[in-house]
């Protein structure tokens, strides 16, 4: 049995903002909608690219083969957004749902390996 694909994620993804404190989650449900926000989408794409292996996700970030970037879709703190970059693939986010050679939004804050690991551990 193969794991979740990007095409399946795109078909099943339903955007829902986290209530209260932001939590980062990989969306792994085998059936039904995959409900999450932009961070969850980016993490799930990274998980897919890492062969459905959380440890490999961390190695990709640590080795500079993948990075999460925080940005804004519009002015104001309530419009933060997360994009994923993967070496050899480019950029993707939940609003465009396909790989692009250039980001659709301005790169603002790169999430480093330590913050990435901490955010994966501190789920709320």
Give an overview of the whole structure:
- The protein is an alpha+beta fold and 124 residues long.
- It has one domain (6-121).
- Helices cover 30% and strands 21% of the residues.
- The longest helix is centred in the middle third of the chain and has 12 residues, at 38-49.
- The termini are far apart.
- The relative contact order is 0.17.
What is the structure about, briefly put?
The protein is an alpha+beta fold and 124 residues long. The protein is 30% helix and 21% strand.
Task: List strands and helices in order, with pairings.
Blueprint: H1 6-12, E1 13-15, E2 34-36, H2 38-49, H3 54-62, E3 66-72, E4 80-86, E5 90-92, E6 109-111, H4 113-121
Parallel strand pairs: 1-2
Antiparallel strand pairs: 3-4, 3-6, 4-5
| Adjacency order of strands in the biggest sheet | 5-4-3-6
Overall number of domains: 1
- Terminal-residue CA separation: 31 Å
- Low-confidence stretches are none
* SSE run: HEEHHEEEEH
Strand content: 15-25%
Shape descriptor: globular
Kindly provide the radius of gyration, computed on alpha-carbon positions and rounded to a whole number of angstroms: 13 Å
Mean pLDDT: 90
SS content category = alpha+beta
- Helical fraction: 25-40%
Biggest sheet overview: 4 strands, antiparallel
Helical segment count: 4
Strand segment count: 6
């Amino acid at each position: 049995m193969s794991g979740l694909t990007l095409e399946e994620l795109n078909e099943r993804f339903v955007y829902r903002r986290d209530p209260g404190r932001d939590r980062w989650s990989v969306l792994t449900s085998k059936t039904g909608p995959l409900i999450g926000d932009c961070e969850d989408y980016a993490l799930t794409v990274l998980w897919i690219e890492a062969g459905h292996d959380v440890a490999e996700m961390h190695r990709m970030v640590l080795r500079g083969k993948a990075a999460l970037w925080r940005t804004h879709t519009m002015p104001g703190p309530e419009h933060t957004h997360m994009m994923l970059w993967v070496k050899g693939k480019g950029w993707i986010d939940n609003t465009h749902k396909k790989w692009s050679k250039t980001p659709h939004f301005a790169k603002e804050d790169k999430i480093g390996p330590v913050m990435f690991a901490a955010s994966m551990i501190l789920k709320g």
